[in-house]
Specification:
Number of helices: 8
Order of helices and strands: EHHEEHHEEHHHEEH
Mean pLDDT: 84
Strand content: 5-15%
Amino acid sequence: MPRSEQQRANILLSTFVDHDEVLNPEQVSAEERIFEWDGALRWKGSTPFAKARIGVSLRTLLSSMAPPHAATGSTSDANWRLTKLFKLFAGEQYLLWYDVRCQVAYIVLKSEAKAPDSLKAWTQALVVAYRLHVNHQYATGARDDWIFEILETTLVDLSKQWEHLIDRLVTAGWDVDVSNLETVSGTRIQSTQIVTATSTQGT
């Protein structure tokens, strides 16, 4: 069965969200582009409106949450953000943060993450980026609390229908147990890293 990769995932999942329809591999292939940018997020046939980086390190995600100060190069205090993010995704095998300024979704995969977890992370990143994209005022002026709100609501909505969606993908002919969403070898974080990072941020 075909593997879900980034471009196919965009087509497949945006169609599902908009129309509650799961396309089969042949239908998705008919809409594929010959060339595509690595990490591009598109809503069906739209132009790219954001980018996703999957399999990044915890350090990369933290840097996107608290960008270094230009003058000193030090990382600004982001303890409440990191702690809140860990709590939000405690039941998932990934962490997700969206940098509105750069329009980039950063996905950290946990050590136990499997192919369906990667697909769920990509799906949520796509939906979050799209919602912020279509609401221009919301996107350009988004505060951290707004970003957490949309991360939470999209995670709740997606989790409610995820198992059913996986069943429908399998029925449509997709191999959900194999994923090549990571175009380069990514990293995984261990639970001990989460505990250490949370403890450090709390001191």
